[in-house]
Write a structure and sequence with these properties.
The complex is a heterodimer. By secondary structure, chain A is mostly helical. Chain A is 77% helix and 0% strand. In chain A, helix 1 packs antiparallel against helix 2 and helix 2 runs antiparallel to helix 3. Chain B is an all-alpha fold.
Amino acid sequence: MQLALFIIFGALALGGALNLLFQRHPIHSALSLVVVMMSLAVLYWSLGAEFLAAAQVIVYSGAIMVLFVFVIMLLNAGKEQRTKGSRAAYAVGFPGAAAIFCLLSFVFLSERGALKSSNIGGDLSDGLDNIAQVSAMLFTRQLLPFEVTSVLILVAILGAVVLARKEQ
Amino acid sequence: MTHLTNFEVFLLLSVLKVAVVLVITLMGVAYTVLLERKLLARMQNRWGPSRVGPFGLLQPLVDGAKSFLKEDMNPLAVERPLFILAPIISLGCALISVAVVPFGAVTRVDGVDLFQIANVNIGLLVILGITSIGVYGITLSGWSSNNKYSLLGSLRSTAQVISYELALGLSLVGVVLRAQSLNLRTIVNSQSAHGALSWNIFGGFQIVAFFIYLMAAYAETNRAPFDLPEAENELVAGYHTEYSSMKFAMFFMAEYANMITVGCVATLLFFGGASSPFGHIFDILLNTPVFNAIFPVCWFVVKVFSFLALYIWVRGTLPRFRYDQLMSFGWKFLLPLAMANIIVTSFVLAMRG
C-alpha cells in the first residue's frame, strides 16, 4: 500500500516539477507547483507525518500558492520568451545539482542503519497521534528556534507593510 | 461473509459508504436549493416553485435535467483546460470534505464504522485544507474566462476567502484546545457527556468562537451577506458569468455542498455532532441497537438542517456588505476577536489544570 502510494505520488510530483519547468505560461507553472505540493503532502502522510501533510496542504497549496496565482492574475503576465539560457546556469547548475544528489545519497547510504530503526513508514491509520509529540517537541526542546522563526516572520510582515504603504 | 477477507470486507463496505454518502449529499444539495427557494419565497410573501409535483417537490430533478440538456457553450477566448478544470475543482473539493464527517454514533459492522467514511486523526485539518484548495476553482474560473467581470469577481472572492480563512481557522482553536485532539470523533465525544449542557457552545463557553465561525463561514461560502463575488448589480454574475449548462450547475452545486459541509462542521464542533441534546436520559427506554444507530443520525440531520435554514433566513434578511466594510470587518474585528478567544480559553484551561 505504502509502496504503491509512493510510486504513484512520487511520479506525480516528478511530473509536476518537470511540467513546471516546461510550461511557458506562469499560471500553468504555478499550478504544476500546486500538484507537486499536494503529492508531497500525500508522501508525508504515507510516512506517518500527518500534521506535516496537513500543514503542507494548508500553508503551501492553500495560502502561498493561491497568492502566487493571485499575483500572476493581477499582473496579467503573458507567455514568457524562450531563451537559450545563460552560460553561468549551465556552468554552475549541472555540477551543483550533481553535487547535491551525491551528498544526499551519501548521507542516506551512510546513515542507513539509523534510518531503518526509526519509525518511518508507519501505517496510514495506525492511530498514532503525532501532533502532541510534534507540539511538545516544538515548545520544549526547540523553543528558541521556534520563537526566533516566528519573530523572523513578523519582521517580514512588517517589512511588507512598510514597503506597501504609500508615502504621506 | 465468511469467504471474504477482512480487507475485502473493508473495501466493499467503504465503496458502499462512499456511494451512499455521495448520493445523499447530492440529493441534499438539490433539495437545499428547493428549500431556499421555498423559504425565501415565503419570506417575500410569494409561493415559490409550486408547479412540478406536489408542493414543487420535483423541481430540483427537473432543474437538473434542464441543466444537462442545455447547450454547453465554450466562448472562443477562454483558456480551455483551466476553464473546464475550475468547476471540477470547485465541486470536487466541496464533496470530498464530507468524507471525514462522522454523522452518527460508532456503529461497527465487521469492524467497519458505518457512519463515517474515514476516521483520520487530523480530520479538522483535512476539512480546512480541502476548503483552502477549493479557492482554486473560483480563482481559475475567473482568470480562464477571459472576461473582466469574471476576473473582478474571482479576485474579490479569492481575497475574501483567504482573508476569512484566518478568522475561521483561529475560531476553531478554542474547540481543539478543549477536546485536545483534531480527530472529529474525539471532538464530538468530548461534548457528549451531559447532553446540550456540555456542548461547546454552551458548556464550553465557546459562544464567541461559534459566532466568529458562523460569520467567517458565510464569507467562505460566498453567501449573503458576504456574496460580493456575484454582486449582480456590479459584476453581472461574478466568476461564473461565462459558464453555461452543467458547468454552471457544478458551481451552483459546489456552493450548496459547501453550505452543507459548513453546517456539518458547525454541528460537530459546537453542537455535539450526532449526540442527543438530552444526554443519556432516554437510554433506559430505547437501548436497542437499532435505536442507538438511528437516533444519532436523526439528531445530526436535524442540526445540519437548522443551519441550512439559518443560512437562508440570513440571506432573506440582511443586505450585502460593501467591499471595504467586508475586509475591515474580517481583519480588524473577527481576527482580533478570535485571537482574544484563544487566549482566554487557553488561560481558563490552564487555570483549571
